[in-house]
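Feature request, filed as a ticket because there's no other form

It would be nice if the structure record came with a short human-readable summary line next to the tokens. Right now we just get the raw output. Example of a typical job, pasted below so the devs can see what we mean:
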Amino acid sequence: MQPYPVSPTLSVSPQITPDDVVQAHSLGFQSIICNRPDGEEPGQPTFEDIEAAATKIGISARYIPISPAGISESDATAFRAALDDLPTPILAYCRSGTRSATVWRLVGKS
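Raw output as currently delivered:
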């Protein structure tokens, strides 16, 4: 896992695994946002897998799946709410990190 910081409180990453959740915690992340729909690719970890690993070590997790076809207004609203509500720093991920970075730019959060 190689998180890329987009702001002082948010970094983005390609798909993570439950083992990466432990690494995220060791890097200081307090929350995880999953922007990748379950089942997008065979063999990808489900949000349930990531959430279970996060819960086990005290990291908050939120599921805001964004379709590769585009970011909806409800996606942006949910992402903004997550940034407002979740403990920071936050790690957001999707397949490549692009959707997570793009929705962050759209909501204009620091």
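Something like this underneath would help us a lot:
The chain has a mean pLDDT of 95.
The beta strands are 4-5, 10-13, 31-34, 60-63, 90-93.
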